[in-house]
Task: structure prediction
Amino acid sequence: MNSVLDKKNFSKAKTNSVDEVSMDISQKIEGEILNSLLQGNQKFIRNLALKLHYADLADLLERLSSEERTTLIKALGKDVSPEMLVELDDNVRDEIISVLAVDDIAGVVSDLDSDDAVDFLEELDEQQQFEILESIPAEDRILLRQSLSFPPDTAGRLMQREVVTAPEFWNVGHCIDFMRRAADDGDGLLPKVFYDIFVVDPGNRVVGAIPLSNLLRVQRNVLVTELMETNMTVIPVLLDQEDVAFMFRQRDLVSAPVVDEGGRLVGAITIDDVVDVIQEEHEEDIMRMGGIIADDLYVAAIGTVRARFSWLVVNLITAIAASLVIHMFDASIEQMVALAVLMPIIASMGGNAGTQTLTVTVRALATKELNQTNAIRLIGKELLVGSFNGILFALISGVIAWCWFDNLILGTVVAAAMIVNMVVAGLAGSAIPIVLNFFKHDPAIASSVFVTTVTDVVGFFAFLGFAATILL
Result:
C-alpha cells in the first residue's frame, strides 16, 4: 500500500516538476523575444516565437504595445498560428488582422476547424468577412457561410461542421478503414479532434452514436447498429448556447450531434467549445453586474469612457433618488447630527445583504436551478434570512448607537430601521432578478442598480422616518 502511494506521490511530483520546467522555458523565451524586439532582428524573433505554445504566444501579444505587436506579427509572416489568433482578445485580434494580408488571413481560416473559423470570422465586419471568404476554397466557403447564417450565440454558430458519420449497414471495420483513408487523404473530412461516430439513415438523420472508446474494443465484423447508443442527446441548430452548455453539464456530455429543423445532421458540438461558452457567459455576467458591456482592458481610454458613461448616468439618477429621501428629513438631521453619522450604517448593511441575496439568485437563474416551481420558496427563505439577520444586527447596532451617543431611544430607532432594511434587502435581492428574468431581461445587467436603490431609499426613509416620529 505504501509503495503504491509513493509511486503516486512521485508521479505527481514529477508532473509538477515538468510543468514548472515548461513554464520556466516559456518565460525565458518570452524574455528573449522582448529583448529581440528592441533590436529588430525579425528572423531571430520568428524562431523564438515558433517555440512558444500558441496560448502563451497569444498572452505575450496581448501584453505588448501596438508597435511591438506589429513587429512580432511581421516577423512571423505566414507562420502565424491559427489557434493563436482564436485565443486573442477581440480588440488585439482586430489590430493584428489589420497588419496581415488578406491571403495570409484566408490561409489561417482554412487551417482552422469550422467551429473555430466561424468564431474567428463572426468578430469581423462584413467587408472583412467577404474578402476573406472569397480567398478560401469554395467548399470551405459554402460551409462557413452556412454557419454564419445562423443567429449569434446559437448551436449553429458553435458547432463543428466536420463530423464522422456511418451508414446503418456498415460494420466496425468499415468505420476504421474510412477514418484511416480520410486521414491519409488529408481532405478535411475528419475533424482534428472528435469523440463519437454518428450513425445516420439514408435521409442523414441521426439514429445512434458510437463513442470511439467502444468502437476500438470490438471485432471488425460487428455491425454499427449493434454497437450504437440510441438514447442520446440531440441539439437543435437554433438552441441558445447557454442552453447547450446547460445540457452538457446536466447530462455529462463530451459531444453531441446538431440537427436542423428537419432532423438532419448538420454538425456536432464538443466539450472544448462548451467550456469556452461557460467561460464567456460567466465573464459576461460578471461584467454586466458591474455595468460594463464587455471586457475593455485593451480598448482605448475614450472608448472605455463611452462604454461606461451611460451606466454611470443610471447610477447618478438612483443616487439622486436616495438624496431626495434624505432631503425630506433635512430639518430632522439639523436638529440631531447623530442621524447623519448613523445613516450610512443602515444603508450599507442593507446594500450588502441585498447583494448577497442577489448573487445567489442570479447564479441560480444562470444555472437553471431556479424556476417557477421553487421561486416562491427562495423568496420566502430569503425573507426569513433577512428577518433573522435583521434582528441579530439590530441588537448589535442598537447597542452600539446607545453606547456611542448615550441615547437609548436612538439605539431603538437604529435597531428598528436595521430590521426593516434587512428584510427589504432579502426581498429585493431575490424578487428583482426573478421579475426581470420573467420579462425576458438579463437579471445580471440591471438587478444590482435596482437592489442598491431600494435598500438605500428604504434604509434612509425607515431610519429618518422613525427618528422624526419617535425622537423629534
The CA atoms of residues 385 and 426 lie 7 Å apart. The radius of gyration is 30 Å. The longest helix spans residues 2-39.
